[in-house]
Structure to design on (462 residues):
């Protein structure tokens, strides 16, 4: 990255953080509206969840593509293209909201466009901010992003209850008004030699879509097709001169550990948050606006504090300490839901504060550990792959939870205090999420400790 860009980093990060807020807000703003959309279109919860999954899928794929393209074309033109595409998708959603199929397409276009923002902001931080300051930078960005994620359902609940859910498509169009200011803060960069591995990108993208169809519909043909596509993708990146993803990245334990752990933990958290509106409606019969404001909104206040605190802890106490705290907060929040879902809806308000707090700590640790495993020339593709895996994990999480909500074998009560089959469904689902969080968190703590010890030993020997 050029010196001009490096000099403008603080201002660029500030503007991109603002855009990142709107990008992730649009990821969750439809959460509370999904039950209403399911009724309007006459579809099941798993089908309604695809309104979010389609956005998250294109968002995940886009972060990988933009991260790779930033190594070739710089950030300015990519940001302009992405935000304009975001506006087009929003306009399509406003004009053709009566069609479920077009709503899916509009959400897909939105995700493909706005995914440029998190991809590019991670590249800028990884390539241009000193490692000792990256914890605070990622903590600040994480708090802004988490704030957008948590306030999205609040806005979605109020707009859906008092107006109509299709107005949610109009909110992102406000970002177009501020686009000239964003572009001015990002100096242009000369184009670099190279090209995008389009066959590799297509093989990976279609493989992801077919696998997501499998975990939503449980049709084994989709699983077989996705496996064939991923095999083709693996062959492609080994043979291509400029592969979509550098195979050498997969040989680095710290990098792979951060990517896999991040995708699992963020995925199960996204699935849990997407479940909450259904849970509050089915168990406690809460209206849409109260779910957004009373249940989900308090997390908005806490997430900013937790994001900044997480960045400070990473810089002062290290990744392992901060990850332990994040995992504990996340598991406590899920355990509270599993045990007391039927007691009162306001207890879930408290557990969600812990959920978003744990999520902020985990995101900061994952971003910092992955950035530390990359060389400067790999920051674009490496951080792009991290973004891709994490957002893909969120898409999988939402799709899996949506599919499990219709499974009859989850309605038998297993915990004391859970009496109704409706409450048992959400309690048992949360137990599954707890198991996944324990496994992923334990693996990260054990393996990362070994990787860090090996790295410290190698540094001393030199």
């Amino acid at each position: 990255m050029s010196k001009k860009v490096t000099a403008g980093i603080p201002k660029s990060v500030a503007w991109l953080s603002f855009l990142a807020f709107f990008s992730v807000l649009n990821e969750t703003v439809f959460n509370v509206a999904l039950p209403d959309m399911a009724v309007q279109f006459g579809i099941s919860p798993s089908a309604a969840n695809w309104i979010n999954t389609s956005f998250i899928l294109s968002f995940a794929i886009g972060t990988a593509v933009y991260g790779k393209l930033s190594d070739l074309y710089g950030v300015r033109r990519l940001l302009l293209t992405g935000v304009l595409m975001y506006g087009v998708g929003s306009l399509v959603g406003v004009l053709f909201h009566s069609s479920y199929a077009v709503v899916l397409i509009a959400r897909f276009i939105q995700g493909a466009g706005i995914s440029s923002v998190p991809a590019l902001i991670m590249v800028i931080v990884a390539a241009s901010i000193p490692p000792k300051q990256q914890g605070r930078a990622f903590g600040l960005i994480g708090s802004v992003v988490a704030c957008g994620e948590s306030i999205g359902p609040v806005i979605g609940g109020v707009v859906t209850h008092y107006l109509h859910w299709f107005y949610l498509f109009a909110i992102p169009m406000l970002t177009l008004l501020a686009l000239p200011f964003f572009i001015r803060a990002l100096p242009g960069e000369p184009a670099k030699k190279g090209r995008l591995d389009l066959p590799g990108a297509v093989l990976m993208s279609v493989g992801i879509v077919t696998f997501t169809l499998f975990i939503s519909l449980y049709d084994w043909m989709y699983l077989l097709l996705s496996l064939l596509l991923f095999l083709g993708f693996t062959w492609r990146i080994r043979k291509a001169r400029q592969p979509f993803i550098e195979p050498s990245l997969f040989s680095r334990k710290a990098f792979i550990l951060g990517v896999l752990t991040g995708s699992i933990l963020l995925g199960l958290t996204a699935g849990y948050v997407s479940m909450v509106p259904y849970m509050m409606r089915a168990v406690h019969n809460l209206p849409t606006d109260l779910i957004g404001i009373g249940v989900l909104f308090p997390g908005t206040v806490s997430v900013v504090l937790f994001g900044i605190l997480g960045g400070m802890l990473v810089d002062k106490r290290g990744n392992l300490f901060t990850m332990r705290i994040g995992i504990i907060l996340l598991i406590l929040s899920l355990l509270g839901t599993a045990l007391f879902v039927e007691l009162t809806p306001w207890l879930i308000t408290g557990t969600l504060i812990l959920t978003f707090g744990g999520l902020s700590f985990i995101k900061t640790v994952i971003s910092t550990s992955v950035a530390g495993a990359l060389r400067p020339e790999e920051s674009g593709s490496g951080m792009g792959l991290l973004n891709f895996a994490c957002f893909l994990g969120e898409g999988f999480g939402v799709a899996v939870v949506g599919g499990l909500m219709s499974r009859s074998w989850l309605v038998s009560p297993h915990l004391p205090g859970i009496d109704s089959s409706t409450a048992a469904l959400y309690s048992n689902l949360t137990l599954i999420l707890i198991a996944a969080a324990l496994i992923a968190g334990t693996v990260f703590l054990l393996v990362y400790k070994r990787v860090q010890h090996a790295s410290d030993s190698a540094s001393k020997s030199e």
